[in-house]
Amino acid sequence: MTRMSKPDFSKRTRFPGTNQNSFATLLAILDAIDRMPAPVFAALLFGLSLAGTRGQGWQAAGLWLFCLSDWALLLALPRAGKSFGPAQPPALALALMRAPLASLLLLFSPPAAWAAQALGTMLVIYGFWIEPHRLTLTRQSLRSPKLKPHAPLKVLHLGDIHMERFTDRERQVIAMAGVTQPDLILYSGDFLNLSYRHDAQAWADTRAVLSQLSAPLGVFLVTGSPAVDLEEVVPPLLAGLPVRWLRDERVTVERDGQAVDVVGLSCTHKPFVDGPRLKEVLGGPPRRFTILLYHTPDLAPEAAAAGIDLQLSGHTHGGQVRLPLYGALFAASLYGKRFESGRRQVDGLTLYVTRGIGLEGGGAPRVRFLCSPEVILWELDGC
After folding, report:
1. Are residues 140 and 45 part of one domain?
2. What are phi and psi of 192, to 5 degrees?
């Protein structure tokens, strides 16, 4: 069990999930790279290839071909209906990784250098083409004295669909929601991809997914980051759908005498703002088993102090790219890697941070590595 204090974030000026943070600045730079004319971008890749091979002509040409193959693979993703982001920013990022590796290995073993480049291409294929569509079902269970024993309640947690276009991944989500037969479905925010917030087809595809989700006790959802789930977009996006949008409210659901409270809280990414609102919604210590549906994990210390039993969140995507033994390279959380993904215990609170379903938008790479998309099926029971 983690004993956590509640840091004072009120003096901060930059917060995850808003337009005032370093990630938003990076996305602006990536957008500028995407606007670069194709011939200029190809020349830039060749310049990096020359630098990586110390000006050796045929070696530079070989490395350039690997860089061009990355670009071609990324350009093909929308045509194959896999993902729909820009190709040039991730192609440049890959070239910036290939060039130093080539420079180092060519000093010692040219065959190893070219083998490493070929391996890089295989990793590009896996990370951009395969893993983003390997949707996994994660099973979790939680026992509580607040629940009636031997009357398990099945809760399906979804998050961060970030719709660009309807793909095989979304088909898998719908199928999995049907096969698991949950009693209750909870969605923790971020409906549209950042690049498609005003895109009519993305709206229609999002509605198509949400309209096919059903559970006996209902489908409840909250909005995600303010920069993604825009105030003027969400109401028409959800209008007429068989879902309930929780806006700073608590509802009680019951099946066979098993009753739980679900609290849905809108997310500002500012714990010092959202924490007091949570207390207002609760109106005192919870009497029933209480689930908090809130987009980011960063409210966990406040939720624990308020007596919440289970917090279901997302936002971080698990980092999308993870390394063995280290985990996420980057987690968009005020607490850094502490809440990057998965199950955590914070005092009496159980927190689960989903890796999400979709991918980051803007110029961010549509990639996953050792961080497949997931939906989570909870079994809640008494003890």
Report:
1. no
2. -110, 150
List, for residues 302-349, the tens digit of each pLDDT value: 999 999 999 999 999 999 999 999 999 999 999 999 999 999 999 999
- Pair 168, 204: CB distance under 8 Å: no
Q: What is the CATH number of the domain that holds 209?
A: 3.60.21.10
The tokens for 88 are 């040039």
Given this model, what pLDDT does residue 176 score? 98
Q: State the average pLDDT over residues 17-34.
A: 77
- What is the CB neighbour count within 10 angstroms for residue 272? 15
* Number of neighbouring beta carbons within 10 Å of residue 232: 9
Instruction: Please enumerate in sequence order all residues whose Cβ is within 8 A of that of 62, keeping only pairs 6 or more positions apart, or say none.
Output: 53, 114, 117
Element (H, E) at 171: helix 168-180
Q: Are residues 304 and 218 in the same domain?
A: yes
**Contact between residue 300 and residue 349 where contact means Cβ atoms under 8 Å apart:** yes
Cβ count within 10 A of residue 126: 15
What CA–CA distance (Å, rounded) separates 76 from 130? 13
Task: Extract the tokens encoding 309.
Answer: 């039993």
Residue 163, φ and ψ in degrees, nearest 5: -65, 130
Residues 182 and 104 in one domain: no
Checking phi first, is residue 368 left (phi over 0); if not, alpha (psi -120 to 50) or beta? beta
Q: How many C-beta neighbours within 10 Å does residue 140 have?
A: 16
